[in-house]
């Protein structure tokens, strides 16, 4: 089966890496249910099926679904766009873990979909383009720290756990890859306007090299931004500092 560029397909072909990914997922996923995104030829699916009876594989490519139907007929499959799925229709609304060798062209959208449905998704283990993986788990002060770093880490702990070279795929991608694990944070008592938080984070990074006082003008006056804090660049602010800023702005509007 030939990979299709339109779906951003690069099939994982190294069984030992597949074993490592699945083992990390099984260890962290306590829900007993698994949703695989972009199963392709089924190298992860085959191993997941050995541990999960509640397993669903979703792929937009009908040819890939047909391959799985033949080789792993006992696994439930969904032919369709993962990004359009209603999570309440999956596993009858119960919690589940997400795993996959994600299509790189929608990998960031997969993470944002998870965040929007985080009450149902406590764990994700996924293969990303290495640059994207590093961006998601990056800490403040790093040049790749940005919107997806802050918005993900507000709700999940992230760690890069496996680095994978191009030789592990067919066809070989032109970039390195990496697997990250995201574990949902326990709910705390910190209350803030999450819609405003998202808006503030995105607005701050529109001009990441500028001081945040330049992007906070729509919410705060110059008088309110006398503190040296507002002379900092967004890439230096922690998740908690963005939350604190959100709470402050909420109190002003």
Q: Could you explain the architecture of this structure?
A:
The chain is an alpha/beta fold and about 250 residues long. The chain has 2 domains: about 5-185, Rossmann fold, CATH 3.40.50; about 195-250, Helicase, Ruva Protein, domain 3, CATH 1.10.8. The chain is about 30% helix and about 20% strand. It contains 8 helices and 9 strands. The protein has helices spanning about 15-30, 45-50, 60-70, 105-115, 130-135, 145-155, 195-205, 240-250; strands at about 10, 35, 55-60, 75-80, 95-100, 125-130, 155-165, 170, 175-185. The strands form 2 sheets. A 7-stranded mixed beta sheet has the order 4-3-2-5-6-9-7, sandwiched between helices. A two-stranded antiparallel sheet has the order 1-8. Strand 5, helix 4 (about 105-115) and strand 6 (about 125-130) form a beta-alpha-beta unit. The longest helix has 14 residues, at about 15-30. The radius of gyration is 20 Å and the shape is elongated. It starts with 10 loop residues before the first strand and ends with a helix. Mean pLDDT is about 95; it is low at about 1-10.
